[in-house]
Amino acid sequence: MIAEGVLPHVVFLTVYLVVLIGVGAVKARKVKSQEDFSLAGRGLPTFVLVGTLLATWIGTGSIFGNAQETFSVGTAAFLLPIAGGLGIVALYLLAPRIRRFGQFTIQDILEARFGPAARVFGTVTLLLAYVIIVSYQYRAGSAVLEQMVPDLGRATAICTVAAFVILYTALAGMFSVAYTDVANGILMAIGLAFAIPLLLDETGGFGAALDALQPEQRSVFGHYGWITLINVLLPPFLLLVGDANMVQRFFSARNPKSARTSAAWMFGGVLVLECAIILVALLGAALVAQGKLETSDGVGRHIVVDVAFAVLPSFVGALLVGTVVAVVVSTADSYLLSPATSMVRDVYQRFLRPDADEPHVVLVGRVVVVALGFVALALAFTSDEFFSVALFAYTIYGAGITPALLAAYFWRRATAPAAVASMVTGVGTALVWKGMTSGWIAAGPIEPLIIWAIDRGMDAVIPAVVVSFGVLIVVSLLTPAPSEEKAHAI
Predict the structure, then answer these.
(1) Interior/surface letters 264-294, b for 16+ CB within 10 angstroms, e for the rest
(2) Contact (CB, 8 A) for 326 and 306
């Protein structure tokens, strides 16, 4: 049964989702080849490319993870968009080079530079990180459904979101994802633009909102120490620089110039939208402190959703709910399509069926989307956290792939054994460090080091990245230099 007062939200959201599925069904007719399914036929214009880049990056990690962090730390959360800004600057420099290479996946780059083993380990790392990311998109979407239909239950809500995302992604791949991401991006901007002035009025202005917060929540630089700041900024930066979604979209651009221009526009868009989401969460936290709002979970994970349903007028609340769902769908489909593309391109075609025709490859791609979607669904029931899970998924990817990828672009002396060793030790260090600091794995003789790290708030990203880069450099210098052909492959 629909909750009281949320009928406008339900109607708006239903119409919006039906339109998305309709667009996906129409675009599905254009899918004739793997290039169509994975890269939208390499024909995305700059406007569409900017929209899909923005909608992909502004995800649940922003609207739930960053919002939860804002609810906890206050104004210091405005430092969080720094990671995205720096990552986009790096992408701006790399975008034309990526597009000129003209392949399908990051693994194509890794193999061209470091051989088949790098492709395989890159695929494994991507699958591990991206399926985790998709899993918490499902939980985020379920938070909206549960508020609209309380009797639905958590498990049913998660399964419903998963079914929609899987169907939507499998229909037309990048064709449906890219073009509807533009609509998602526009909806995000409109929803936030309407919500912020109304929330400022509700709190009594920004000054009154700050006055309602705890003193430690009012300081931009007082909350985070240097180690903690590295913990929260380095993982998203590393993910963005080496993100397979971004590379796949640059491969989808019409030409190198369009790829670079879209990266430039993305810079401004990400900073504005990230800061707008943090401001909404901050004003929501102020309303809780003023006694005008109660959180649905007590810790602020759903503060943006709570504001949409309980504070804003129905029309604006519906827009903001649509924004949340747009964020969830656009991020989930992107992080589901990338590993599916990688599995088909980097494993199935590369090693199992190199002679498969285009219709068969498209069919396999859709099957893999469904399979990975169900794996993510299983993982969605393992944790209720957003911010910490997002940072760990980013750490796995950033420590496993980004160092080797940067070496492929910039360091001719890097060798294939070094790249593979860097991937394995980077991911391994992240997993083992997380296990030891969480008590799942016995620390043994390094227990004093673990205790020292915990006392200083050190997360897995610092040791994982240090080990990954260190192994890459040392092993490269200890092994024979690559051939001229390999060194200049990218």
Answers:
(1) bbbbebbebbbbbbbbbbbbbbbbbbbeebe
(2) no
Distance of CA 65 to the CA centre of its chain: 11
pLDDT tens across 249-263, in order?
A: 776 666 777 777 887
Contact 136, 381 (CB under 8 A): no
Give the 3-state secondary structure of 32-100: CCHHHHHHHHHCECHHHHHHHHHHHHCCHHHHHHHHHHHHHHHHHHHHCHHHHHHHHHHHHHHHHHHHH
382 Cβ partners below 8 Å, 6+ apart? Answer: 135
Contact call for residues 87 and 237 (beta carbons, < 8 A):
yes
Helix H or strand E encompassing 279: helix 256-289
pLDDT tens-digit map of 184-223: 777 778 888 888 999 999 999 988 998 888 888 887 766 7
Cα–Cα separations (whole angstroms), residue 45 to 55, 248, 338 = 16, 14, 20
Q: What is the pTM of this model?
A: 0.79
DSSP 332-379: HHHHHHHHHHHHIIIIIIIII-TT--HHHHHHHHHHHHHHHHHHHHHH
Using CB atoms within 10 Å of the CB of residue 310, give its burial: 0 to 12 exposed, 13 to 18 middle, 19+ buried: middle
Listed residue (325, 323, 281, 322) closest to 299, CA to CA: 281
Domains of the chain listed by start with CATH number: 7-398 (1.20.1730.10)
Nearest-angstrom CA–CA distance, 356 and 367: 15
| Residue 195 tokens, joined | 């919500």
Joined together, the tokens standing for residue 28 give 């599905």
Q: Count other C-beta atoms under 10 Å from residue 42's C-beta.
A: 17
Reported as a pLDDT band with limits 50, 70 and 90, residue 102 is low
253 DSSP β-pair partners = 44
| CA dist., res. 124 & res. 140, Å (int) | 25
Contact 77, 66 (CB under 8 A): yes
Q: For residues 421 and 478, what is the distance between their CA atoms, to the nearest angstrom? A: 12
Question: Which secondary structure element, helix H or strand E, spans residue 390, and what is its range?
Answer: helix 387-400
Task: Render pLDDT for 264-294 as a digit per residue (tens, 0 to 9).
Answer: 888 888 888 899 999 999 999 999 989 898 8
